[in-house]
Amino acid sequence: MDLSGKDLPKIVVAPPGPRSRSLMQRLHEVESRNITFSSERFPVFFERGAGANLLDVDGNLYVDLTAAFGVAATGHSNPAVVEAVTSQAHLLLHGIGDVHPNEVKVALSEKLCALAPGDGPKRAILSSTGAEAVESALKTAMVASGKPGVLCFTGAYHGLTYGTLEVTDRDFFRTPFSRQLGKFSTRVPYAYCYRCPLSLTYPACENACLSFVEEAVSGDGGDRIGAVLVEAVQGRGGVVNAPFDWLLELRELCDRRKLLLIVDEVYTGFGRTGRWFACEHAGVEPDLLCVGKGMASGFPISACIGKAAVMDAWPESDGEAIHTSTFLGQPTGCAAALASIEQIERLGLVERAAQLSAVVQRELEELREKVGPSVGDVRGCGLMWAVELISEGGAGNRAQASAAVTGALERGVVVLAGGPECHVLSLSPPLVITQEQLQFAVRALVAALEHARLPAERNA
C-alpha cells in the first residue's frame, strides 16, 4: 500500500491482527516483561509510516495523534530527513565525537544556538536522548552556580536516568529506586490550573502558586538551591500548560534570587506549541534550554543549549572532558536534525501549528459537549492538547481513558493516555497532519469515548 501521509484510516482486520499478535508473543520471549504492555486489544506493530499515517503489519492504516511521543514533527519518515541520513551514512556514519569532530556537528551547534531564545552568545552540549540533555543541564547548573540543589515541580517528567529521575515526579517511577537517588531536589506544586493546589481560579489568582517557589528558596535548605527546572508545558504529566505569565514571573523570580532557570522543551520544542519553543509565548529566555524529540523527526539526538556566561563555567578541555559520551555530535544524527529543522522552516510548520491550534480547540470543545461531564478539561496550544477524563467525583478516570485509547485504535486512530493517573488523552500529532485527518481523528475519539463511558463509569 502506498502512503501519502494524508490518508484517512482504513481498517482491514480488527487490531491487533494476527501478525501483531504473533510478534507480541515472540517479543515476550526475549524482552524484559517490564517494557511492553499487552492485552487482547493491544498493541499493534507498525511497519511503515508517512506524514501523519502509520501502517501496521496486518495492513491497517491509521492516523497518528502522537507523532510517536512528539518525535515525528515533520511527519513519519520525512523524505528529506531520510535522504539526509542516507547521504551522511554513506559519507561518515559515526565520528569520534569529542576528539576529532565533524563539520556537520559544527553546523548543527551553530543552528541550535541561533534558534534558541535570546540574542546573546550561546553554547551547546549535544547528546542522544532527552534525559541526557537534562542531565547536561543539571551538571551545568551545578558547575555554574556552585550549588547542588534543584527546585522542580509536581507532575514533572524529565527522564528516567538517575539524575533526571530525582527531578521527575510520580512515585511509580521513583519508589523502586528511591534508595539510590541523589536527594538534591526540592519539589513544589506546578501551576496546574484545572487542579489548582490553592483552589483558586486563574487569572484572578494572580499566580499565587508562585508562593510555593518563594517559600522553598527562602526556607530550610533553600540556600542550597542553585537552579529551577521547569517544563513550559508538562508533556507526560498530562499536557498541563501553565499560564505564560506564570512562567514569566518565574523567570523574574529566578533573576531576583540569582537562580538559574532551566526550561525542559524536549517535548515542546521545534514548533510543537506554535512557537519554535514554548517559552517564547511568555517572552522567557532560559539560562539553559533542553531539546530533543522533534529536533530530528526520528533520529535519536538531543541538546542542552545555554547562555555562554553560564556554559563557560565548564572548565576548558585539556584532552579529557568531564561530561561527554560516545555518540556526542554523531554526524548522522546531526544531519538528520539539520534536515528536520530545514523542513520545519521550509514548510512553515511552526506557523502551521499556531494556525491549527484554533481548529483543534474547536473540535475538542465540540467533543466535550458531545461526550458530557466525563470530560473534565480541554487544554493546550499549537498541536499539543489534552482531554482530561474524570469520574463522577472528579478523580482521574483511567478506565475510560484506557478504553478510549483501544477504542480509537480500532477506529484507525493512534492516541496515548498520559497524566499521573493515565487519565488524560494526549494529542501531539505530526505538524504536517491535515485538517481533514484531525477532524476525522477527533470524531473517532468521540465515538470511542461514548462507547467507553458507561462501562468506564461502572468500573471507576
Q: Name the average pLDDT.
A: 96
Determine the CATH topology of the largest domain: Aspartate Aminotransferase, domain 2
E-strand count = 17
Q: Label the structural class.
A: alpha/beta
- Give the low-confidence spans: 455-460
Strand order of the largest sheet: 4-12-11-10-7-5-6
Strand content: 15-25%
**Range of helix content:** 25-40%
Helical stretch tally: 14
- Going by CATH, what is the homologous superfamily of the largest domain? Type I PLP-dependent aspartate aminotransferase-like (Major domain)
**End-to-end C-alpha gap:** 41 Å
Biggest pleated-sheet summary: 7 strands, mixed
- State the name of the first-level CATH class of the largest domain: Alpha Beta
**CATH architecture classification of the largest domain:** 3-Layer(aba) Sandwich
Q: What form results from the Cα inertia axes? A: globular
* Overall domain count: 2
Rounded to an integer in angstroms, the radius of gyration calculated over CA atoms is 22 Å
